[in-house]
Structure formats: C-alpha cells, structure tokens
Amino acid sequence: MDREQILDRYEAPLRRGALSSPPAVTASGTNPRCGDVVTMYGLVEGGALSRVSFEGSGCTISQAAADITAELAEGRSLDAVRRLQPADVVAQLGGTARLDCASLALHTLQQALSGASASRSEPASGGHDIVHVHVRIDGRVQGVGFRYTTAEEAERRRLNGWVRNLSSGGVEAVFEGPRSAVEDMLRWCRRGPPGSFVRDLHVDWDEAIEHFTRFEVRRTTER
Q1: Whose CA, among 40, 69, 133, 151, lies 20 to 30 Å from 75?
Q2: Residue ranges making up the domain that contains 189
Q3: What is the DSSP letter of 207?
Q4: Does 121 map to a domain?
C-alpha cells in the first residue's frame, strides 16, 4: 500500500462507525505518544466476527491501521482474530516504523474479544432484514477494475446480486442481503477501488427480493 492509498484509508475509511453495544463487543485503546484514540466494535455470530468497525482520532497510521484491522478481522473466527499479529497489519500498510500506532487497533480489538464467547450471536434485529438495492455509479469507474473489485467486496460481505458496465460509462449493480452488509457495501461504493473516482452514487431501495444465489459480473448493457 502506497502513501496515497494510506491517505485514502484515513480520509475515507470503509469501516468507520459505531455498532450498538450490546450486542457488539467493544473496547477502547490509546497511544499516548501520538495521542491516538481508537474504539473497536465487533459483532460475534457463530464463533466468528460478522461485522467489525471502529471510531477514533489520531495520526494517519493509527486510523488507517484501524480500518485495515477491521477488514482483516471481519469474517474470521474468534480464534483466528486472536492469532492475528501486528505484522499482519503492517504488511497491509506496506511497512512502517511506528508499530505502536499500527498495532493499536488490533490490540484493542483483541481486548474486546477477551470475554467474548464463541456461541454469542446477535439477536434478531433490523440489521438482519434482507434488503434489495439497485445502484448506479457514475464517474471514472470503467477501466479501473471497478466491476471485479465490486464482486470481490460483495462476496466478502456474503451478498448476492450482480454488477455490470453501462455503455454510457457508468457501472450498475444490484446487492441483496442483510441490511447492515448492504449498507456497508454502499459505503465502499462511494469510494471505489484505487484509481477510480466516484462522482455520483444513485441508490434505489426495492422491497422486491429476487433471491439471487450468488454474485456475478454481467456483460455491458446499453443504458
């Protein structure tokens, strides 16, 4: 990850925001040297972290590392997250000598998990309502890997649906799955992959559920 990508993580993190606690586990940590403050949130389902997010303030490294830590931990088992090392975060950053800044979020998240049970799960709530959303993305979104990165991000969030290029130069997508995961996907779409520039994001929520069974990349369509 180069300096520009680290700044992107700092200025437009994908996983910033609080989760309700309970049911989420949470802990806060500080780094006195830089004045960094990080609060990590984790939603435990079936012995794994189904969602991870953070809030905080401080230097670029600490806040970018918090976003990276949340991404690394989400979807992993509790034991796997407990085994993560600061070197795993530093590798994603592309290296740094400021290990106290880079490791703050990981240590804080592992502290939050110290009392978590593998059987703990989130009670039924609106966050697990299955929703269907249609999205059109305009800007510099073709020729930058937008479709395939979108598919990877959707699959990582266990969403179904599709994505395709439009002949007009935009990208169109449909996401279907738990509301919380879809909302997180929309936050990613507002940023897009490195090299892209999202000018407008048009979102239409639809009550009709099509029950897709996977996420796919479709051919360009005339629109």
Answers
A1: 133
A2: 126-217
A3: S
A4: no
Last residue of a domain, one of 115, 150, 167: 115
Distance of alpha carbon 139 from alpha carbon 131, whole angstroms: 26
Task: Give the chain's domain count.
Answer: 2
Residue 45: Cβ-neighbour burial (10 angstroms; 0-12, 13-18, 19+): middle
222 within some domain: no
Which helix (H) or strand (E) covers residue 3, if one does? helix 3-11
pLDDT in tens, 182-215: 888 988 998 888 889 999 989 888 766 777 889 9
- Supply the CATH number for residue 154's domain: 3.30.70.100
This prediction's pTM: 0.55
120 band by pLDDT with thresholds 50, 70 and 90:
very low
- Helix (H), strand (E) at residue 176: strand 171-178
φ, ψ for residue 215 (rounded to 5)? -115, 135
If one counts every other C-beta atom within 10 angstroms of the C-beta of residue 168, the result is 12
Residue linked to tokens 């995961």 = 181
Residues 144, 150, 155, 161, CA torsion sign: negative
Q: Please name which of 217, 214, 197, 52 lies closest in space to residue 138, comparing C-alpha atoms.
A: 197
Residue 60, phi-psi category: left (phi > 0), alpha (psi -120 to 50), beta (remainder):
alpha
- Domain at 29, CATH number: 3.90.1010.10
User: 190 to each of 30, 64, 173, how far by Cα in Å?
Assistant: 30, 17, 13
Q: Which residues are catalytic?
A: 147, 165
What count of other Cβ atoms lies within 10 Å of the Cβ of residue 7? 12
